[in-house]
Amino acid sequence: MTFFTVVIRGLSRRPLRTGLTLAGISIGIAAVVALVGMSRGFEKGWQVGLKARGTDVVVTNRGGSLTPKPFDASVRDRIASLPRIDATCNILVEVTSVEDSDLMILSAREWGCFAWNNLELISGRMPRDATEEAAVLGQTAAEVLKKKVGDPIQIETKQLTVVGIVKGGALVEDGSVILSLPLLQGIIGSPNQINAIDIRMKPSSTEQQIKELTRQIEQLVPEVRAVTVSEHLSHNEGFRLVKAMSWGTSLLAILVGVLGVMNTMLMTVFERTHEICVLLAVGWTRGRIMRMILYESALLGLFGGLVGVAIGAIGVQVLSATPAIRGLLQPDLSIALLGLSVVIAVAVGISSGLYPAWRSSRLNPSVALQAG
Amino acid sequence: MTPPSASALLEAKALTREFDEGQVKALRGVDFSITEGDFVAIVGPSGCGKSTLLQLLGALDRPTSGTLLYRGISLPDHPNPAAYRAREVGFIFQAFHLLPTFTAAENVQIPMFETDRSASERRERAFELLKLVGLEHRLDHFPSKLSGGERQRVAIARSLANEPSLLLADEPTGNLDSENAHSILDLIIGLQQEQGRTMVLVTHDPTIAGRAGRILRMIDGRIVSDDKR
Fold it and tell me: What is the ipTM of this complex?
């Protein structure tokens, strides 16, 4: 028999209670995995989308909402001549409801710019020109909207025709309705308005040169913000809100987990007062008693964490396959996130075992062992 | 103050123990000296303080005043009372106090965690000890599956786990029928005599006390007689 056996024996003493406590931690950790995984996936999806288009720098209005406020398209002309810019593309993005889908990305791009180049036709064709009343659908968007080539599609007040289905190399692209810029400007009644300019730098531009360009743009046009693709999302209020909410909710779930484990461990200490006194009487040190209780609670955390990570990972996959979310969100479950979740669970276990362990070590063996 | 006599294993002087801020006086000044190898019975009516005294000897409790020396070292000031309990003392209780979630062999191994023995050495020693008390066929039984006599045998094996010099027994046969009580008593006394251990046994049964080499009689927190035979 090893010390570990003693610890396991302590936990298996009340299998139902241990099981329920494990379930409590697991749900908390599953929430962490699911929420944080989703928010990271959301963020990463946009980032990959921008990179797939070949965008290095994004110019937006100074606000930070998810779909930034529109500004005048003439801004592009003021910055296009800056050094090291290879190409620019005026963009107007809206997240809105399209037919039966509540959340659909409408991505309008300046006709002929580089943001069209990464789209790979699966069926049909690209629009003929900037004014053809046509749209192409990312493959996921087509599935969600149940459209095929030749079908009509209602965008706000205007009916367009689906002329092609495309693969965009990124989740956001695949989940978008893509159309030419003047068409969407016409539909929403704001000609010359855009809400982003995607900029592609000359090949072999260094990180430093990209930074330098963003600085120059902001100097030239003070009302806009120019950021690199990865910075773009961390500045975005929408993403920050999603991140804060997911961690906030997770923290609450973890707190509930802490209270659950602490309750269980305190009960176990009270229940086992007699046993702990026997251990003290046969010579166990108070340190060893504390270790026993702490190992038990740490183990609860570890098992709860492992189960929670499994539940969270599976749950999030199931969730992201539901029609409402599909195409918008691919959860990002990195090993680091899963590992961090298990570490959090063990920390939950240890921290909630501290007080019960201290209580157990304060017991006075003489009281409990009076001959009955 | 007289220095402790060279051969005394335990020596008490003016030992008192009060509870509830002096309202209850369990020990009212106890003096005695116990020599290594002695078999001492402490007898007296319920509440006379004999169990309290035993707990002081086992460092499970601390005296209110007076001195209590083990091999010349003050027990209340012992730097490591847990180590004293683990290595020097073996406890045998009336209610056995086995751990219900551990088998007989595991219960015997529990005190050995405070030694350098490896897991396999612990297992081996538990087997030897259970064989010594006649339970080699009950190694993997949980206490709930053992009779009262068998449980006390496991507890005796446990008390011997770390080869203590001092055995402290608190009414060890109090929860047993007369037949089991008899054989348990024979076992304890046999182990004490064969291995030359010191034993302090608390009982209210005069026939059990009669088998000890020395009887300390207590009434109302004081030793009233000390019969050496």
Answer: 0.92
